[in-house]
Amino acid sequence: MSGDFWGQITKREGVKQSSSLPSELKQASSPKASKNDALEKVEGGQIIPQVFISYTHDSEEHKDRVLSLANRLRSEGIDCNIDQYEQSPSEGWLRWMLNQLELADFVLVVCTEIYNRRFRGLEEAQKGQSVTWQGAVISQEMYDDFGENTKFIPVVFATEYEEYIPFVIKGFTCYKLDSEKGYESLYRHLTKQPEIIKPDLGKLRNLPHRKRESLFQESSTIGKYSEEITFIDLEEKFPSNVAILYVLEQENNYFLRLHNIAWDNPKETETSPPPPITLSQLINSQQRASEILGQLQRYRSRCPIGKLLGWLRELEELSDLIINDGTDFVIPWEMLPLRQQPLGIRVNLIRWLDIPDLENWDKIYSIPSPQSSADCCQGDVLIYAKTEELEEIKSLKSYQSVCFSENQAFLTHLKEKKETIGLVYIARHGFLETTFSQKILSYDSFNCYLQGIEFSSYYSSIIFMNACHFELIRDQFSKGYRVGFITSFLERGAKGVIGTLTEVEENYATLISQEFFQEYEKNYRLTVPQILRSLRDRIYQRLRDEPGNEDICALYFYTFMYVYYGHPNVFLKLSLAEG
């Protein structure tokens, strides 16, 4: 337990004063040294790190833990400072605190529920003002550095405190100080002594060239494998108004690669730590919708996503952006700002995944094939919903439709293909549950039931999943590819899938669904990505017309959670109900 570990440290008799730093890091340090003094290098050595601990006085036991941590760091050669070493600083507590934050090479942020509350300014008036000020300073410094951070380090004394890491530093490594191993990891970080040294770079091997092949071709050989395959570099087959972005993960870091035919070579960022703003962080931050939207305006040119936005600004003819995001970070690409507008309004944004070939798992389709003409998803609407009385289902009654509430009947009808189906609409919150007691369709059972169904062999369909969110998982049976309901539909030939990145409140889900079909009915010639783009723009205008309306902010946020995976140039032509 954390209390036991640091209680033992506190009870040690005689604090060790000799430095445990390696000899090349030893350097005399004065408690009142200036920042320039702290950074001055000694001959043949490195600097002694200055550390400040930011924490709250939750209890006497908690203060003792922090004091024990500071004492041990000092005893082992790190110039650590905390408020308990001071009685009454001559410059006053506020200026002393600001100076400590500025002078420190590292700031250890000891995360607890009280600390997080005060950091966010949610504490009662006149309570915990010091940490509230520190929170403001840390947030501002992170903002000025465009989300990059090497200074502020979250630490916890026990696992249960990890949920209280302040949002602005949640994406960075947190050190759990409930054991000697946890302390050693922090000490290695502060003294730049990694446990594992990266080996020297070797020489590149020459490998035979292999290019990508498209999944969907105008051919009857879809899904069949041949030993003689011609691979085509598909990025070069798209026109200049289309850009293709690959988001690639590497050992929990990521980098971006952007293709456009106007460039001789793709643009590529350096490998960087996880982005400071991901969807899970935004949702878990428990902020108001307006605060979340404000966070998304912070990307600037110094971070990888900021560089991407700069490259996109260079493409004046850009109308379509295809994104294959291979990471688990869940970045809300549609909401990022480009030329004073969200990216999902500025361009038609199409997402894609690595789609394995069902017959040959060595073949992966990384982007959709270029289309010489539009695909028309024409026919009736097949509905899977818990009841036909849902408001969103009532709005579909203007089309030829059939509705099923049981998954067996729904899937049987889908297999029998009694009519051409232009749209499959799924309105089952809980559709993604996997427990047997729920008796609701799971991903694995869904794959089982889909055996023998190939959409492209019989009809072209769009899938609209208004059912929780379609989480993607790493499949241990398919080389770690990200799989889910999206891949199940796409690998069987569906032209596209609409769904949500996170769970959407049911009232908003109903409203957004209705607004989607209103946009479709206003202009039947819009492609599916264009319908979503037009819908976002309409809600965006409402947000601008009604600033400060938190309900509109929430509607705007949830609208952007609806994204499209599939082929770019696909439109709907749904059969109208008789009469």
* Coarse morphology: elongated
What's the end-to-end separation, in Å? 71 Å
Question: What fraction strand?
Answer: 15-25%
Percent range of helical residues: 25-40%
Number of strands: 23
Under CATH, the topology of the largest domain can be stated as Rossmann fold
Q: What structural class results from the helix and strand content?
A: alpha/beta
What does the radius of gyration come to? Answer: 28 Å
Please, how many helices?
19
The CATH architecture of the largest domain is 3-Layer(aba) Sandwich
Rounded average pLDDT: 78
CATH class descriptor of the largest domain: Alpha Beta
List unreliable stretches of 5+ residues: 12-44, 210-232, 430-440
For the sheet with most strands, the description reads: 7 strands, mixed
What's the number of domains?
3
Organism: Gloeothece verrucosa (strain PCC 7822) (Cyanothece sp. (strain PCC 7822))
InterPro entries: SEFIR_dom, Toll_tir_struct_dom_sf
Region (Disordered): 1-38
Biased composition (Polar residues): 16-33
Give a description of the structure.
31% of the residues lie in helices and 18% in strands. The protein has 579 residues and is of the alpha/beta class. Strand 13 (355-356) and strand 14 form a beta hairpin. It is elongated. The N and C termini lie far apart (71 Å). It comes from Gloeothece verrucosa (strain PCC 7822) (Cyanothece sp. (strain PCC 7822)). It holds the Pfam family SEFIR. Residues 1-38 are annotated as: Disordered.
